[in-house]
């Protein structure tokens, strides 16, 4: 189970320390699992060990906070960062900034996605969906108030077209095509994916633009008149006169205008409807794709966070894969999954009514400007939960579904790396939080024939959080990976190709440097010894430090001194004896030094509870001596939940206070706080780009479930109806332990444990940094006759940030069950 510590690691390391390149496959076997009664695919899939992963770009200076991907006809790629940067990466692993859009970045807003025109080879048109800066306040919008209080936060997301040439996106060529009105200043659900169908129509997905955190993990339908509109999704996704929570379909013309094709949900001219709507009733349709051969749309939709069903509110967390063959309404916020209804709920009186009618949904919300009577809700093609769905066991538990591409095999395509014919016609589902990519085969009616596994993300491929995928012109699969640090700064974020490569695999090139920016003359020590070959062949090295096409060194770890100001791509090519190569590149900036940021308060790992006011202070240093402008320091507070995160508050400055909130999550949820800060300097040298420094820390809830450990030795997690969250740590023997990271015990004097024993019990020792590290306290668990009880121990704060180990001691096996712990 992964926790915020692994994110923090990537966020706090210097970007100069690691840049990867080609990642080749190992010899792990391809596991093929099928549900009972499901028929095998027509042809046997290729072994997963016949694939390899090749890196094109990696690290924060080459991918930023990755969001969207578009592969160009020559195999190069455009990819976006939420802060507004468009990157251009070539097949030889060189990445440049193609453009920087001015965007509004509160919560999840920013530059979302990018796509190329079907006739890009002739017109060089690129489409982007983003949040223009406008004059929106940078503060959070109020939760309650009047229309006048909410008016300053009215904004829109913009669909525009640009011209791309010579590696640059011409921002002056912008054609503004379509605007989607939004309520800014609150979280969440921008969505924003974009593809063209086989008829040249542009399809755009949009989120419901609603705040889910005051709805207990169920549907946000808060109709109170003084409530911010973001708390009622009925105003958007189930509003036939609104473009949010939809799949839009339009035909864009050469002059940037558009018309609406036949076959959308509402005929043109229908009162109280928008003709652009093809499908509606979505929550956060973050990724979808179109099979250009059949016209079928595969759309994944994120679900709310409820850990269990509640007869007074509705179903548990449910995520969806929708197979859309015609225009329709897909239920949110009234119905979800296989048309399981939510329950009508009055947020003012906190009373429940009747379940919604999925066959005859009615939107009578005060903020609805569209039709009252909606089309029948369509059930999802595949639906899943955090705990999994026995109808689709191959998917396991799931919370972040992604709608990937359909592979269409081209027999005439001359490519050594294209996916084999056995994948023809298969839809590639993938999971942001579970790392996997799973090809799904179905017949023409949508009946599933097989669900396979291309990679689990931890086998021959190394995926952290894949956020976008697309097949390239050579038949290989491009994958944009978000990485492990929220909101940018990840060393392990990257852009990859997954290639079919039976037999000998390409080597992996890896660069480490001691620095990547500074004043001239700048001596940089390069290290390529981390490069590897799957067959363990001996590698040769070729370095091009200034990207002039000349090999400057063949050493594994050379040093090069840059004497002229500028920004350089230093490239390493490693070759195995068969001639297969791997390439890595790192950007070196001469004439400007990246700023250095740190939080002097709060400490990393500080504990908090709902309602705490946490003061923060960011220390920023510009090594070049340029004065730091605190008004340009961007700071955010986000709530992490399991493997996803929501930005809850933003501020500018070097100091301030955030009000901590669990945002509707309970102690049974794996949540944590994230403080992030960034600062972009003003380069002291003309012609040399400005540079951005970032820092991120994690704050921990005072109360936590024991099963949310980071690592463990000897224990298991088991279902337990008497435990909070219905799970507990079990099979505890003498010497076993669980570990949590990071924790700072400032202000903590006691830890209470909720445990149960049917025997002699044992003790829980609190150690720091290692299972045998300094002892901070010991709690004793006696015989509780199997019932949960609370036992506590005083603890001594050792000062600073540490790993916490709960080490279990006792005589006989199976000492006790551990449910949770609370710090006070």
- β-strand percent reads 35-45%
State the shape: globular
How confident overall, as mean pLDDT? Answer: 91
Number of helical stretches of at least 4 residues: 4
| Low-pLDDT regions | 1-37, 39-44
The number of E-state strands comes to: 57
- Measured as a percent range, the helix fraction is under 10%
Distance between the termini: 25 Å
**Which structural class fits the helix and strand makeup?**
mainly beta
Query: How large, in whole angstroms, is the Cα Rg?
Result: 27 Å
Largest sheet entry: 6 strands, mixed
Tell me about this structure.
The protein is mainly beta and 824 residues long. The protein is built from four helices and 57 strands. Strands 11, 12, 13, 14, 15 and 19 form a six-stranded mixed beta sheet that branches. Strands 40-46-45-42-43 form a five-stranded mixed beta sheet, covered by helices on one side. It has a five-stranded antiparallel beta sheet with strand order 48-51-56-53-54, with no helix packed on it. β37 and β38 (581-590) form a beta hairpin. The protein is globular. The model is unreliable at 1-37 and 39-44 (pLDDT under 50).
